[in-house]
Amino acid sequence: MLLGVGAIIGTGIFVLTAAAAQKAGPGMIWSFVIAGGVCALEALCYSELASMVPVSGSAYTYTYAVVGELLAWTVGWALILEYAVAASAVSVGWSGYFMGLVESWTGLALPQ
User: Fold this and answer.
1) How many domains does the chain fold into?
2) How far apart are CA 66 and CA 48, in angstroms?
3) d(C-alpha 6, C-alpha 91), whole Å
4) Given this model, what pLDDT does residue 98 score?
5) Is 56 left (phi over 0), alpha (psi -120 to 50) or beta?
6) How high is the pLDDT of residue 107?
């Protein structure tokens, strides 16, 4: 769960907000509102699934309970790959911040 939260907050809010504001302008605020509404609806769906299948395991467990093992296996591996891509995106985003911090503290320009 923390990988998902880190990917959403780390890359979505801190890294990409400035680039999105330059391109979208005030429409970016509406995109955050719409995305928040969609996330709230998804949270309601997950809470409904959690009350029906009271076992930990997120999307894998829900898919296993409803459809079966083969599709649950696919969903599980898709989640693992999603977390790997998300961790890579967070690393790229935060490395830019780290390079700026090192440059401002030491005056040393790191290669990109």
Assistant:
1) 1
2) 13
3) 10
4) 84
5) beta
6) 83
Asked if residue 111 is part of any domain, the answer here is no
Q: Has residue 10 been placed in a domain? A: yes
Containing structural domain, residue 52 = 2-106
**Tokens coding 52:** 């029906």
**What is the model's pLDDT at position 25?**
86
| Cα torsion angle, 97, 102, 105, 111, sign | negative
The C-alpha atoms of residue 86 and residue 10 are separated, in whole angstroms, by 9
Which two three-digit tokens encode residue 57?
A: 């395991």
Q: Which positions of the chain have pLDDT values less than 70?
A: 1-12, 14
pLDDT given at position 77: 94
Q: How far apart are CA 101 and CA 108, in angstroms?
A: 10
**Which pTM was predicted?**
0.63
The C-alpha R_g of the chain, in whole angstroms, comes to 19
Identify the CA nearest to 17 among candidates 3, 32, 34, 6.
Answer: 32
DSSP codes, 70-88: HHHHHHHHHHHHHHHHHHH
